[in-house]
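Researcher: I'd like a structural prediction for the single chain below. Treat it as a standalone chain; there are no partners to consider.
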Amino acid sequence: MQLRLDALEAHLAKGLAGLYVVYGDEHLLAQEACDRIRATARAAGFTDRSVFTVERGFDWSSLLGASQSMSLFGDRQLVELRIPSGKPGKEGADALKALAAAVNDDVLTMITLPRLDAATQKSAWFTALADAGVALKIDPVERAQLPNWVGQRLAAQGQRVVAGEEGRRALAFIAERVEGNLLAAHQEIQKLGLLYPAGSLSFEQIQDAVLNVARYDVFKLNEAMLAGDVGRLSRMLDGLRGEGEAAVLVLWAVVEEVRTLLRIKRGVAAGKPLAMLVRENRVWGPRERLIGPALSRVSEAALEKALALAARLDRQVKGLSGGTPGNHRNDPPPDPWAGLFELAMTVASPKAAPVPPPRLRPAATAPARRPV
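Model: Treating it as a single chain, here is the predicted structure.
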């Protein structure tokens, strides 16, 4: 049975299933879901707990043995299986199908997996698990939904933002600062609960508590680039720079996205279906929806030019010469971060002039004095 996260509490109130599969890459929500299942299991008498993590050379027989044996003290058991890779292999797939077929009222099994692609969700082993128990998919909270998510979390701890435009601005401020990182958002919400009593929170209170603690994610930068959100792109680059992120890591992330776009662009030109190319290039999550508009916005020639700029930037951030000898026109900007902005703009807004925003400009030099 497939179950939505928001239906978990109602499901648990009616009683436990014998098997749960929790899968998704939103670690905070997955952890909270597992905690709720564990708490309900403890209350139901599942006090003996065994944890298995699938690694290279994992002994699947040990898992099957634990799921079929009674506790030494007669307690009901909670058996947790963690598969970080999401790929159990052939032996593991057979073991999981056997596990799904062996129902034991005294053993509750909880399996955690990362995000699974459509093909894996249709595999025999996953289908067997979902049919035998409850499959709980943890969907990511999209950036546009994050302000509402923050508001709900504040309400859960007895706090709320003021009504009207100020409150919406306060929620948007938190969402911008954490840049889609739910763990960071959770920490900021908890901080607000410690700093202020229950009740209404003003924008100034939230700003004072959250300011200067942004956690910018270099991989979220690609989403802003694909979406063509120039303002967010500029803000994130400035934030990454302020937090001391290595320019070479940011360059790598942007270049990987440019290469992916170029491979897909060439594949589409060769007549391959876009959906197949997206799967082959492992484009998942929000990027999957953004890749189409980005491809229509940027040409193959522009992407090739971007890779040429990236090669010069790579030399620059590593302390080597950034430009082509004798051709200063092709040199990247003196400030590598301005060059990174220019590179990202080839995808975000290819028709715009490649001028870095004010906060990313290299420091101005004083004009040379004329001899008297």
